Amino acid sequence: MTRGYDFVPEDERDRLLRYLAAVVAARPAPVHTTVAFNAVYFGYDLGGDGYGSSPLRLDDFPEITFGECVPALPVGAMVCIATGSDPLYAEIVYREGAHPELGALGDVPAWVSGAPVGAVGPGRPGDGTARRRELLVPDLHAFGPALSLSPAQLHRLRTRRRWINEDGHVVVDVCYPSREASRSDDLTAYADHLLTTAREQLLSPFVPVSLAELVGSTRDDDLRAGLLGLLDTVRGVLLAGDELRMWGHYAMTRASLSECWRDTGPLGGDDLRCLAAAVERAANPAKRRYGLTSPVTAYTAVGPRLRAFPGAAERLRGVGYAAAVCRANVTLADVVQRDSEQGLFGNGSRVTLDDAFEGGGVWRTHHPGETEPAGNPLIPAGRGWASTTGETSDADAMPEAEPASEQMLEPVDLPLADDALLGPAELLRPDAESIAWRAPLRLAHLRHGRLPLHPDAAAALHRSHGRRCSVHLELSHHGAVLAASEAVQAVTAELDDTAGHLAGVAWPESFFPGLMLEVSWPRGGLVIRVATTRLQEPVRDGDRLIGHCFDPRVLTREGAPGSDRHGDTAAGLGPRQLVMRTVRRCGLLTLDGHALMDRSVLSRAVYGHRPAAAQTAALETAVVELLAEGLLEPALGSLDIWGRPHFPARTGERAIPLIGYRPAWPRVISPWGGTDPGGGALRGIQFVPGHLRRLRPGCSPSHAQRVAFREYCRRLGKADGWELPEGYTFVTEHTRGR
């Protein structure tokens, strides 16, 4: 599951879905993806105790004192709210923008919808300060009755309005480290929170299975990759649940939605239908003389608009507010999809979602709607802010008029700029008896059955055996059994004074670009030996299980989509594969296999020229999807005066956005079937990491298990908390049959 939803077996997905569906049904608020992750990772009890029955250490929670300006708190953050008396433990289950310009009836000034953080007025982005007012909805009962305040205590806190307002919510000014940070998606923001502010909580040895144990490392890069993979798995499972509905990252049961629509009370079906009708008619044109009408645009924020319904105040207290806002947005989305043509209704108005965050969601109604370009009405376009700056929003952007922009081009493969620098041979042992060197296997070697020789060996062979001779090649693939025809081969050495190679090599199917080869030639002989070196622990690269040492730079460049021993071409690849192939082949390459590319030149790098608008749009959509899934990462670089990109960004150079491929090579704890990714020899064997287990009343852990838990803590880098929590024992890692 640390690798993402696509890598999880179907039966494991079903097990996870059954549990998460029960969590969504049990919790009163819609369950965000990060909250669902918390339930799985930290252990949420469905019997009523919530996280209170898990062995979480409350001392690991960050203590938050709400004041005029606080650091950003993502949905899913577990906090201890300092109240001046008893601590208030809570889980943040919902957040939205709470701009002071939002009207009491949900009316929103155009410039607020889609405005960047720190904007101070129409077309005025501000001085660069990344500050925004937000409303946070904490679940004050997430840790069970034993850790919840009494109704009287909560009433007193609400009345004072010092730490929470009268609805049990928190309205604060949030200070982001940068505007880029404020634009992070929810999953990335939560991963950043867990790896920094809540790091002790994330790596706690008291959770069911620590992330460090799952990824086999405490390095930040490995932890981040594993954490994003787990979040992707949870997100995919929630989306796959037939009994669940999603609004953004928030999951609700279909049963609860149906019950709400049947309800005739406040914020029930009648009020939601009234809301949908009001949004549709919000831009009804004003009649003028001779029947002329003027264009009208209206912006409606869902959260404030719901407060205007009679009797809604009590329904909007606590986590009920999050449930009401999500249900209202789902209703509006259903009406737009059912009763309109890409947002264009029969009355001539076009209704679209313009801002998904501010005020619980800002919906834009424009008349006449047919004058605007059509598009997906549920993708936030930010037209409100764009209309006050003179800029064109992403939804309204039109391609430049350029002849080449209308040509449907075929992808091209630019030559690798650093081809000559990849995989140089490293001389290991030149002596009187033999010459030994090490070099990675290249894609061209695999495709053409060749093996380059070190210049010293080629020159010596040329002097003793001429320009062409027959050689015995002995292959040894450590930990694997090769066929006899592969283990010993008769090949041809083609030589000159300075270079040479072996031709006619039949490379085994398990060999791949980047595999590190150690080659030795006993002087004077006609035998060349090639061996691989086994890794202590296998790693994965996509669908490939790697058990031997490799060069990450070569694997990044030559293991891209469309490249294998049967061909090396971009022809026939879809937009996602084209993006990944181009970034891996053309991006700035680091020693550990990272590749970073100027995002603005992607389409030209893929097609060689500026392609048709549809092709450019498809690539950009693919980039957005890959970034959201964590397969690509955003970065900031710079461009020098010669147009060359640099990373990290250099002082004095123009900053540019980069997209980066970060190879994710998580350790494979116990491969299914040894070196066979399909799982032959070890099928049915499952690795179980070390974990805590609740004891029956009256039982206590043995001394051996206490010692094993201390050692487990040391492996996780835990400097404290050596003792097992009360009522638990430690189960050491082991394998078991299914």
Could you characterize what this model shows?
By secondary structure, this protein is an alpha+beta fold. It has 21 helices and 33 strands. The strands form nine sheets. The protein has an eight-stranded mixed β-sheet. A six-stranded mixed β-sheet has the order 2-4-5-6-7-3, with no helix packed on it. A five-stranded antiparallel β-sheet has the order 25-26-29-27-28, sandwiched between helices. A hairpin with a 5-residue loop joins strand 25 and strand 26. Helix 1 crosses helix 8 and helix 2 packs across helix 8. The protein is globular. It starts with 9 loop residues before the first helix and ends with a strand. About 5% of the residues have low confidence.
Compact summary:
This protein is α+β, with helices and mostly antiparallel strands. 29% of the residues lie in helices and 22% in strands.
Q: Please, how many helices? A: 21
Mean pLDDT: 84
Given as residue ranges, the uncertain stretches (5+ residues, pLDDT < 50) are 288-292, 397-406, 666-685
Identify the overall geometry. globular
Strand content: 15-25%
The total count of strands amounts to 33
Strand order of the largest sheet: 13-14-19-20-16-17-18-15
Helix share, percent:
25-40%
Assign the structural class, choosing from mainly alpha, mainly beta, alpha/beta, alpha+beta, or little secondary structure: alpha+beta
Cα gyration radius (Å): 30 Å
The description of the largest β-sheet is:
8 strands, mixed
Give the terminus-to-terminus CA distance.
Answer: 18 Å
